[in-house]
Specification:
Length: about 160
C-alpha cells in the first residue's frame, strides 16, 4: 500500500495546478470498538450492529460490529488538514458536503485513511471555494467505506 503524503502550496493561486489531481493520502486512523461505542453514545445511535459484539457475530454480514458511516465521515476535516498545507491562509471554513456515499462498512478494530483529490475550485473575493473528493479506504479492503465531496472556503493572507 502507498505511504501517506501531503501537498504543500505556497500561494492559494497555485492550488489551480492540482485541479483533478490527488493531493494526498492521510495517515491511518484506528477505529476501535471503544471509539465505535463512544460515537454510538454521543449520537444516541445504539443499534446492535455498532455495539453488540455477540449479536454481530451471529447476524452481521461482517461477523463483527461496524462503525457508523458518519463516524468515518467526521474525520474529513482531519484528513484534509493532513493532506494539504497552504502557507498563506488567513481563514479556512468548512462549507459543507456535496455528495456522500457509503459503499462498504468500517469494521470495529480496523484501520482507515483518506485519499484526497481536488475536483473543483472557484475564485471568491479574497480567496477560493474548493471541493475535495475524499475516498476513505479500510486497510485490506478493495471497496472504499465512504466517498465524500467536501466544500470549503479559504481566504489568503492580505498582501
Amino acid at each position: 500500500m502507498e505511504k501517506s503524503y501531503s501537498t504543500e502550496i505556497d500561494n492559494l493561486e497555485d492550488l489551480n495546478r492540482y485541479l483533478n489531481k490527488e493531493i494526498g493520502i492521510s495517515d491511518w486512523f484506528e477505529m476501535t470498538q471503544d471509539k465505535v461505542n463512544s460515537f454510538a453514545e454521543l449520537t444516541q445511535d445504539k443499534q446492535w450492529i455498532h455495539i453488540d459484539q455477540e449479536k454481530a457475530k451471529l447476524y452481521s454480514p461482517y461477523k463483527k460490529t461496524i462503525a457508523h458511516g458518519f463516524h468515518v465521515l467526521s474525520f474529513a476535516s482531519q484528513v484534509v488538514f493532513q493532506t494539504l498545507k497552504l502557507k498563506n491562509v488567513a481563514l479556512a471554513v468548512n462549507y459543507g458536503l456535496e455528495k456522500v456515499r457509503f459503499p462498504n462498512a468500517t469494521p470495529a478494530n480496523s484501520k482507515f485513511r483518506g485519499r484526497v483529490s481536488l475536483i473543483n475550485i472557484e475564485d471568491v473575493e479574497g480567496g477560493a471555494k474548493y471541493t475535495f473528493k475524499i475516498i476513505f479506504e479500510v486497510k485490506g479492503e478493495i471497496k472504499p467505506v465512504c466517498v465524500a465531496e467536501t466544500i470549503s472556503l479559504i481566504y489568503s493572507m492580505p498582501s
